[in-house]
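User: I'm curious whether this sequence folds into something compact or stays loose and floppy. Could you predict its structure so I can see for myself?
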Amino acid sequence: MLNKNHKVKIENKIKSYKNAIPFPHLCIDNLFENDFLENVKKDISCLKEVEWWQYNNIFEKKKAYNNFQNMGTYLQSYFNFVNGPYFVKYLEKITSINKIISDPSLYGGGIHKIERNGKLDIHEDFNYHKLTGWKRKLNLITFLNKNWKEEYGGHTEFWDKNMKKCCVKTLPIFNRSIIFSTDLNSFHGHPEPLNCPEHMERISLATYYYIHSDTKNKDIDVKSTVYKKRPLDKTNASIEKMRLTRSKGRI
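Assistant: Here's the prediction. I'll summarize afterward.
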């Protein structure tokens, strides 16, 4: 499943993750075997359209699927593996985060699909698992987009903590994975509407990781996804009200 060369120069990966700007992250091409991900993508094409979550509002236009039981064999194998002990230890070594907890329920994650003109505004992720109280620490995103061209857009953007500039733009090409921190100020998304052909979609696999945390502490600020305003984004009182409402729960 993993590319046989994934262990090469692990020390360099550790250093790259730690020193990355604007927040800790690591982009890895060909982390998994191509043939395996080809079969994962075939499994996705077999999922029933009616079972996908549909999100269509001013901040996001996308589809999501996290019903593990209805996924095909290769899809289940992927999520079992990235949530399993071997890969979790791999993440701990790269990130220096101890006692990482995986989430086989795929809460908020799973498969994300965005069609032409879709987008996902720059945002700060929800910070605690709603059901378990775990504190969110890390994301793994694996892209499944073959023959994806620069002009199609869909870049994952990482913004600085003051939301003044985009520091990193990553094209979502096939078998490219991004591991990144989800602490405060880890602002990311792909805010520009997709410009791909009608028959294409931006498909990614999203897995989230946590650590134990005492959510009974009254000082803990539990919040949902917080969408951020870029310097040139249009806004008004209605949009800002929606932004605040969304931070307290999905629209």
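Summary: Residues 62 and 215 are 30 Å apart (CA to CA). The chain has a mean pLDDT of 93.
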